[in-house]
Each structure stands twice: as structure tokens, then as C-alpha cells.
Amino acid sequence: MKTCPWVRRLLIGGLALSATLASRAADKVPPRIADVLTPLPPGAVQLGGRLGSQIDLGIRARVAAQDVDALVAPFRERRDQWEWRSEFWGKWITSAIAAERYSGNGSLRALNTRAVAELIRTQTPDGYIGAYPDGGHLQRWDVWGRKYTLLGLLAWHEATGDAAALAAARREADFLLGEVGPGRARPFTNDMWNGMATSSVLEPMLLLYRRTGDTRYLDFANYIVDEWPTPEGPDLLRKARAGVPVFQMFPGPAPVVKEYADGGHSKAYEMMSCFEGLAELYRTTGNPDYREAITKAFANIRDTEITVIGSGSDWERWHNGHSRQTEPWVKGMETCVTVTWMKFAAQLLRLTGDPAYADEIERSAYNALLGAQSIDGTWWCSHSPLAGLKERAPKQCDLHQNCCVANGPRGLLLIPQVAVMASADGPVVNFYGPMKARVPLAGGGDVALEQVSAYPLDGLTRLTVHLASPAEFTLRLRIPAWSGQNTLGINGTVQPGPAAGKYAALRRTWRDGDVVTLGLDLRARVISAPGHPDFAAIVRGPLVLARDARLRNRSEVNAPVALFADADGFVAVQPAAGPPARDVWQTFAVSAGKKSDQSLQMCDFASAGNTWDAVSTYRVWLPLAERETKAAKE
Ligand SMILES: [Zn+2]
After folding, report:
1. Which residues surround ligand 1, an ion (CB under 5 A)?
2. How far is the CA of 376 from the centre of ligand 1 (A)?
3. What pLDDT does 21 receive?
4. What is the C-alpha separation between 148 and 151, in angstroms, rounded?
5. Per residue in 140-173, pLDDT tens?
6. What are phi and psi of 416, to 5 degrees?
7. Residue 381 Cα, ligand 1 centroid: separation in angstroms?
8. Residue 72, class by beta-carbon neighbours within 10 Å (0-12 exposed, 13-18 middle, 19+ buried)?
9. Beta carbons within 10 angstroms of residue 444's beta carbon
């Protein structure tokens, strides 16, 4: 039998597993809060299908094709005044290290090794690695860039145990500690976005503390958070715990776009980067105030900002967008926001084990994230509005780079880290589709899980358990909140249908060859636009559908439609069997008339608009022509 490439890669990855793990750097200080769910070891999961092919494309065409010297040049030149050139090395290499660990691609190892060595070569005798000149430190994006550099060096040290990378990170951090603190420079003077850019340095400071055991890094993280309530600080802990809506956290006229004032200074990407840091502070210290802040902030963003495709922000700011999805936006939904939202959700998934966070990651992955990746995988778009055009991300700061181009692959490489995870009493399956995973068991040994599935086009997944010897553990399967009617079988015996929005927890003594069959509910939901019941979107499983000018009825992308949903808010939708339109992954026939032969042709949101010009003008929220349309509330 022919072994498909991703299965072959898993077998190779499995052989390499012990060697890779042996070189991993261990933390000197364990976190106070142990994660409920943990990512699998390097190489332990391989995805096929829709997600797997887009991840492979992103690695091949974007991550592995990066000109490393171009990313290091700003650190040699050190001439930035307002630019963010120093973020790109760290953002790229965190994706490249994740890509290497996922794929076992040897050429990536060589590229990453050179990128780390070339960067360290730019470190000044006093420890600075950055793009700002002497006398210009701590301005604008300087500390933000150092944050990404530290994250990159620490990720490399974690993956390889390279002592030089850890030493460089320590010297870089020590230099910052020498510049900022009591009796030295204030942390938030002349940085960006009310101290949020600088405050995001929390995350690597806490990783560095746990890696080295040096309490000065924990002290610095606590100092930053203690400074938040000062006039120049963002006051995020208090605001998040008090439930201040994120779009009202920084009121005032928006800079850059005078006519667009609604979001004030609530810069979405930078704010969530601070909440990622606060998640690390909670993991490190166990202070329940931090847990309260991050869980409330996440719920606040989800309920007031996140749209049907799993992203948010207009012109990069929060703006109460959840209830404004049918309105025209200036620049809807930055890809940096999509990726950081997914990363924030992954932090909370690890900390809480609540599958609602995996629901959010899945929605963002299939829609906003894949929808921003170019057809050939070489580039990304900055913004993904819900109607109109997607546009190619512009080059920034005289580099062949863009903040979103550097972030997109980080979102792709997050997917394998959450698709299947480990828990104290067994494996946890969050994502479905053709996939293989090898999960360590608490009692020793491991279990291999093999999924055969056409998900998300088909709701049925057949999961086979492979074990060297029988083992008792709990196998958890995520049942998405949208999946109301589910079927479950073990070795052909029908089990009670599992409830939506929870993990189905199957505890038994598992034997090699046991087969679990799971059927999820892929009836297409007609979702009413929040606050605008005259508009509806169609969502099938995790996929948001869109009209696109390339499809049948091309002149009518924006025309009102008649949708005849059943009493429960479902509409008949069939994936088209024939070849899709060019560059479209999947088209669907949507029942759109009283006669059964009337249908609307739609496609997955990720494909919609992917020519990045008027050829593929598209629309998610459909204006409704008939009042008989019954829509479900999301
Ligand atoms: Zn961006």
C-alpha cells in the first residue's frame, strides 16, 4: 500500500522523537499552575486534509523561503526611529522553529541555525540586540522588538538546548533591566499604544525566569504589572477584571484615521499580546486575579468584537465590532489579530481544559486564518473584511515583510499544537480530519491515534487506537458547541450521543485496533447578524460560507436572497460534487427558494476573495429578501 506523505513523515518523526526530546531544555522553576492540556512532543502529530495541506504550503512557500539576512540587517544597522523592523526576526523564527518541530524538515534546521547565529553576532558588548541606535532606545517599538527577539532565542534554546542562545537572551534581558526600572527609565515613555507594546515583554521575561530560576526576571514582570495603573500605563489588569469592554479601554480620537474614532486607542494585537503575558504570569505565580483578568478579557473580546469568521478589529483597533458586522468597515480584521486571538485562546485552552477555547481556535483557523493566506502560500493579506475585497499586505519598513505576513505562519503552526493534546488521564482530540498523533500516556508508553475523515466536508470521523499493549485511559473527543446532534460508536456498539460544547470522555481499557466512530452535526446553520436581523450568514460545521463573483449568479454577490430555513434554523446545503471554480477549495449549493431547484452557489470563506482583486468580490452577510427566513441566534 502506498504510504501518503504525512503518514510517512509521522513515522520518521516518531523515530526522531527521543533524540529531539533529549535535547530540549528543561525549566529550572516549574509553573505554580500546571496546564490541564499540554501540546504533544515535536513530530508527534501530522495533519492531512485541508488544514494539513495549507500548513505544508505555508512552510514550503513562506517560512522556508525566507531571506534570513534581510531579517538580521536591521539589527546590524540599528537606525530605526519609529519602525518595527526588529519584530520580524523573532516572529519569523518562532514560526520556523515550530515548522521544523512539526515537519522534521532538515533544511529548516540549517536555516534556523544560521539565523540564530547571525542574530547573536549583532549583540553589542553591553547586551543589546535591537534595531534602535544608542540614544534612541526604549522609543516606539524598541522593547516590542526585543520581546520578539527574546521569544525567538528562548524557543530555539527550548528546541535545541543551545546554550549560546540562552546566554544571548539573558544578556538581552539584563540589558533591559539595566535600562528600565525604579531609579532608571520609566517603562512606558515614548513607546506605542499606552504602554501595551512594551508590556508585552512580560511573556519572554516569565519564560526566562522559569528557564533560569533567576528571580530578577520575575521581579521585572511584577514591576511592569505594578506600573500599569500609573498615568502612562495601560491599567489592563484593573480594566479587565472590572469588565470594561475592550473597545472602551482607551477612549479618545483614533490616530491615523481621523474619521474613524470608535476604537480610540484600543489596539487589538498589542492588547492581546499583554494578556498572553498575563497568562504566563498566572501560570508562573498562581495569582487568581490574573486568571480572572484573562478569562474575563477573553469573554469580553469574544462577545463584543469577534465576528462570524473568528477575528476582529477595524483598522487594527477594537470597535464593538461583533454587533456591527454588516456595516462597512475601513480595514476589517487584521491577520495579526486573528493569530494573536488564536494564541490567546490556546493559552486558556492549556490552562483550563475548556473545549470552548478550541471551538474558537477552529473557527479562526478555517475562516479568518486560511482566508488570509495567498493561493500560492508565499504571502498573506493584512485584512479580511466580511464583504468586498481582500488585499495583498503591503511591504513595511523597506523590508520584504509585513506584520501579518510574519504572523500568518505562526497561526498555521499553532494548529498542530492544539489539534491533539495530552492530559493527566489520556489523549484529547480537539480537531478532526485525516490525522495521526502519538500521545504519551501518564502510566508510560504512548498511544497512536489515526483519524480517517473528510471533515470538515463530512461529519463522520473514524478513529483507530494503536497500542503496544492494552491500557486504561480516558480518550476525550471535542464536541463543538454548534454540533447539536451527534453519534458515537465504539467497535460498532452505539453509545449515547455526546452533548455539544463538552468533551465526550471515554474511559476504558483500550486495546490495539479499537475503533471509535464519531458523527458531528453538519447541518448548515442560518445565523442572524447580531443587531441586524435583515442579514444572515450560513455556517456549516466550522466553515463560514460566502458568495463570490466567480461563482454562478456572479453579478449578484450583493443582491438580497431568500433563505428558507427549517423550524430549527437549518438550511439545506450540499457540497458540490463537481470541480470547483478555479482557486476555490469547495463550493456549496444552498437552498434559496421555495422551489427545490432554486439554489445559491457559495464557497468556503477562506477561498472567497482569494484573487485579491475585484474578480473575486465576495460577501458573507446576505441581505434577506423574504421575511419568512428564519435564522438561528448564534
Ligand atoms: Zn499585522
Report:
1. 334, 336, 403-404
2. 19
3. 36
4. 5
5. 999 999 999 999 999 999 999 999 999 999 999 9
6. -65, -25
7. 9
8. buried
9. 7
**Residues whose CB falls within 8 Å of the CB of residue 239, separated by 6 or more in sequence, listed in order:** 249
Query: Taking a C-beta distance cutoff of 8 angstroms, is the pair 284, 211 a contact?
Result: no
Query: Would you say 84 and 145 are in contact if contact means Cβ atoms under 8 Å apart?
Result: yes
Give the dihedral sign, CA 362/202/148/274. Answer: positive
Find the angle CA(107)-CA(113)-CA(116) to the nearest 5 degrees: 140
Cell matching residue 146: 526585543
Question: CB neighbours of 121 closer than 8 A, spacing ≥ 6?
Answer: none
User: Residues near 619 by Cβ (< 8 Å), separated by ≥ 6?
Assistant: 386, 387, 388, 546, 547, 557, 558
Q: How far is the CA of 197 from the centre of ligand 1 (A)?
A: 14
CA of 585 to the centre of ligand 1 (A): 25
Q: Environment class of residue 32 by beta-carbon count within 10 Å: exposed (0-12), middle (13-18) or buried (19+)?
A: exposed
365 — phi, psi (to 5°)?
-65, -50
> Which of 280, 319, 274, 281 is CA-nearest to residue 301?
319
Q: How many CB atoms lie within 10 A of CB 490?
A: 16
| Calpha distance 510→559 (Å, rounded) | 54
Could you report the average pLDDT of every consecutive run of 10 residues in the chain (634 residues)? 42 37 73 97 97 98 97 98 97 98 93 98 98 96 98 98 98 98 92 93 98 98 98 96 95 58 79 98 98 98 98 93 94 96 98 98 98 98 96 94 98 98 98 98 95 98 98 98 98 97 98 98 96 96 96 80 89 87 93 74 97 96 74 48
Q: What is the pLDDT of residue 555?
A: 60
Q: Is the dihedral of CA 372, 373, 374, 378 positive or negative?
A: positive
Q: At what angle do helices 142-160 and 88-103 cross, to 10 degrees?
A: 20
Residue type, 416: P
Q: Quick one: which H or E segment has residue 175?
A: helix 163-179
How far is CA 366 from each of CA 244, 293, 455, 577, rounded to the nearest angstrom? 30, 28, 11, 20
Cα 144 to ligand 1 centre (Å): 14
Residue with cell 538581552: 172
* Predicted TM-score (pTM) of this structure: 0.95
Give the pLDDT of residue 138: 96
Q: Are 486 and 541 in contact (CB under 8 A)?
A: no
Query: How far is ligand 1, taken at its centre, from the CA of residue 14, in Å?
Result: 35
What pLDDT is recorded for position 2? Answer: 39
Q: Measured in angstroms, how far is the CA atom of residue 406 from the centroid of ligand 1?
A: 8
For residue 306, give the C-alpha cell.
Answer: 469577534
Q: Which residues contact 266 (CB under 8 A, 6 or more apart)?
A: 246, 247, 248, 249, 250, 317, 318, 319
The rounded distance, in Å, linking the Cα atoms of 222 and 32 is: 15
Instruction: Compute, in angstroms, the gap from residue 384 CA to the centroid of ligand 1.
Output: 11
Q: What is the pLDDT of residue 257?
A: 53
Q: Which three cell numbers stand for residue 159?
A: 528546541
435 neighbors 481 (Cβ within 8 angstroms): no
Average pLDDT, the chain: 92
- Spatial distance between the Cα atoms of 168 and 311, rounded to a whole number of angstroms: 35
Question: Residue 82: its pLDDT value, please?
Answer: 94
